[in-house]
Amino acid sequence: AGMDRVPLDRDPQKGYGGARWAVVAGAGAQRFFSEAARDGLFPPASLVGLELAFRDDLGHGLAWGVDASVGGGAGELRLEGVDPIPVKFSELAGGASLWHDFALGRATLSAGVRVAFTWLDRTFPDAYGLPAQYFFTVTPGLTGAAAWRFTPSISAIARVRLNYLFYNVDE
Fold first, then answer.
1. What's the gap between Cα 133 and its chain centre?
2. pLDDT tens digit string along 41-80?
3. How far is it, in rounded angstroms, from Cα 142 to Cα 160?
């Protein structure tokens, strides 16, 4: 049996374990920081989604992933001088992220960047005679996560994603 020469960044003795991939299912919520957007345009939404993540194929500790989620909510549209109007809100979102994993034993902290698309739709009861409305945008953002590994193939993950929503339709 002979020994093969491998690059230092691919040496298992130096921590390289090979590229890994994961499918992550999740549930979460979306809320807008802007009171005007949150209360008047898009109420908070519950979301469910899937993510496909690849770790260590770009280098040790580097990861990237793509994700998609769908959800919605209900609320009231509040306009000055008009009674509140009931509204149903739906969303389709997705994106691509690049982040760095910081392994701390069974725990892993992650921080990175994200580019996402967001498609928002809202509908009103027929009695109000208002047409359905939609909005689509691409948004930059940040992502962070904390994970706890129970077994080599099962982890629990808490993730936060902050995106900037540029919304100037009414201006």
1. 23
2. 677 789 999 999 999 888 778 999 999 999 998 888 877 8
3. 8
